[in-house]
Amino acid sequence: MTTRKPIEKVHFITTPHGLEFGRVDAAIYSTPPAAFLWLSAHLESKGIECRIQDAYTKMLDLETILKDIEDFQPDVVGLSVFTIVWYDNAYLAAKIKERFPEVLLVMGGYHVNHSYEEVLQCEAVDYCLPLEGETSLAELIECLNAGDDPQKVKGLAWRENGNLVATEPRPPLHDIMTLPRFPYHKLMDHRYVPWCFSHSPKDRFMATITSRGCPNQCVFCDIGRTEGRRFRHFTAQRVADEMEYLHTEFGVNQIEFLDALFTTNNKRVIELCGILKERGLELEWACASAIRFTDNQEMLDAMAETGCKKIFYGVESGNPAILKRVKKLTTDQVRKVIGMTKKAGILSHAAYIFGLPGDTPDTMEDTLAFAKSLNTDTASFSMAIPFKGTELYDLYKDKLISTDYREYQRSAVFKVDEYEPEYLEKMLIKAHKQYYLRIRYILSRLGKIKSWHDLWIHVRIGLGFLLGKIRYKMGSHKED
Ligand code: B12
Ligand code: SF4
Questions:
Q1: Domain layout of the chain by residue ranges
Q2: Alpha-carbon Rg of the chain, whole angstroms?
Q3: How far is the CA of 451 from the centre of ligand 1 (A)?
Q4: Among 113, 209, 211, 218, which is best to mutate for testing ligand 2, by the most ligand atoms less than 8 A from CB?
């Protein structure tokens, strides 16, 4: 596995869904690939030229992606792998390697973190870079360019003479403030459409991320095990600078923070709001957080005052015993913080999961009833997915009925004594219908829609969910 010329250019590509069946499925989300911003920022500071092609959001077909690679002539192509779309990634990797055999193909991301042995069974993949990839990729390139031994680089896995070789895991980046400003200009060739804001074609949206790590330990999430439990973050000053840069340089007026828990450090958020107020920036922003880190009216008021429009909360269940079991707060604490958020004038989104450990048909009904009574501005219901690397996987690995990742978001992939797997699917459809088809809810939403464009976004997200279901029912994800 040697490269013939020095590595000077890296091409990062997001993978469209459906490629393995020779089609391109509509992208349900329109969110910029933050991982590639972080990776490119670091590599470019080392003199490596990077290109980001968000083929997933732009719904590019295979030929267009290959043509783009031909135009850029990279030495390395990097793909980021989510478990559910591993097969599309493997297909794309094989096609890239077939057309450009001299290109070094590297993969990172969530699926690679826990399943690089499986990923390396795909012959097209040269290197896997589990965990945080900035330093590992830069050091790998430096090492290969120097003709040195990759064994010296932490955080790598590859095949050598048919055997798997893995070096010591890469520890998390200690000081993320050392990263240069993100190269947002690489993503400005596409107009992203947010799910979290009322949006019209006059608005310009971009997402960014300002921290790593999460002190929580939710059973269905691996972040504590991969990014670590220590919250590492940009200073308030740096966050304000990034926002101002996006605004003045690119006319961005809507920003979503993709951080797992944006408000973990209340002091940082209050300080950020102070700076935004001082600078008088006309911006709307949104973020995700946990109930436990948002119980602060002063902070919520400051957030609202400086343009925070929506907070995404992972509520997960409406049943007290399940909440305790999955290490979440009580329903009273949830009600209190959602009330405080409403009082501040910020919209709230609550995400719920059916099929958590201990869930029964009764506790799931509790969740649905709680969701309706909480009546957040938007809500989403999903099925528990035992992704590798999570505590949920450890609990359910002997109960798995399918290891086909394509099924992971469409049907229950485990069987427990309390209900049949199909029950979860039915519950999901019932919950979305019962939540969104309430007259009270529809009337309240209609009042908040800003334009036809905005209405279309709502319809598209709803259709995306329903079409995904229908396609699955008809088995068309398996046909072509
Ligand atoms: C933003 C986000 C999205 C965006 C992604 C935008 C994009 N195109 O990248 C959108 C909304 C589109 C999205 C969709 C989905 N998401 Co999502 N998403 C997230 C979220 C909130 C943040 C991810 C992020 O940007 N992190 C910041 C970056 C800097 O970190 P990172 O991605 O880990 O990248 C670092 C390393 O992993 C590594 N790395 C990553 N990629 C690569 C590639 C190379 C070549 C290298 C060398 C290194 C490398 O280096 C990076 C820098 O250190 C996470 C939860 C979280 N808080 O992390 C969930 C999360 C990643 N999503 C998840 C899921 C399940 C999905 C969906 C499958 C949901 C669905 N049911 O449809 C889809 C899949 C979409 C797709 N692209 O195929 C799961 C992944 C679980 C898994 N095992 O795969 C997560 C962890 C949430 C969860 N806890 O369940 N998601
Ligand atoms: S709060 Fe979010 S990022 Fe943290 S462990 Fe729970 S799901 Fe994962």
A1: 9-164, 191-384+438-467
A2: 22
A3: 30
A4: 218
